[in-house]
Amino acid sequence: MQAESLSRNLEGFARFLSIAADWAGHHLDLSKLAAAAQVARQSAARYFEILEDTLIVGRTEPFTKSPTRRLVQHPKFYFFDIGVRNGLLGSFEVSSDRIGLLFEQLFFSQLAAGAAAADRDVRIASYRTEHGAEVDFIVDTGREVWAAELKASRHVNKTDLRGAHSFADFFGRKHRSLVLYLGTERRRLEGIDVLPWQEGLHAIGL
Fold first, then answer.
1. Cβ distance 45 to 30 under 8 Å?
2. 144 or 97, which is more confident?
3. Which class in CATH covers the domain with range 56-204?
C-alpha cells in the first residue's frame, strides 16, 4: 500500500474500505462505491485494485454473456475472511438480515482457500437473470461444472430450486446442481441434491 502512495489520502481509503466491507457479497458498482465513500471514481477503482492485489477481496465474474437471455453482467465481490469483514464493520452478530450474505461470504472464502491450497485453477462465477433467477456460485473445476445455490436456512423447498432450474435451462450442458443449506440431512428434490454445505464443499472437491 505504501507503493501505491495511499498515505496521500488515508482517510478516503479508510472510508472506501469500510463501505466495501459493508457491500461485500453484492454486485460490484465502482461508481456507487465511490459516491458512498466520497472519493473520485478513479480513486475507487485504484483502491479496489489494491484490495484485489493484496488478496483482501476476490470477485466472482458473471457466468457468461448470452445473445438470447439478459444476464446481470456485474461481478460480485467478497472479502478473503469473514472475521476481517465483520471486524471492519464492528459487528459479529449473525442477525436475520445478515445471515444470508455472511453464509455466502463464508462459502466463497472456503472455495477460494480450497482452490489455492490444492493449487488448482478454479473458476468461480455467479449467475443471475434480469428476472431475478440466480445461482450464487458456478464453480468450474476444469473437470466438472457445479451450480451451487446457498440457503441460510435449515429448510429447503421447491421454490428454492428456481435458480438451479433456470441455470440448467440456460447452460444446456452436463453439470451438477446443488442446494447447500444449514441443515444436516441429505435430500434429492426434483433431481437436485440438497446437502449440508460442508458436504457440498467436499463433493466439489475443495
1. yes
2. 144
3. alpha beta
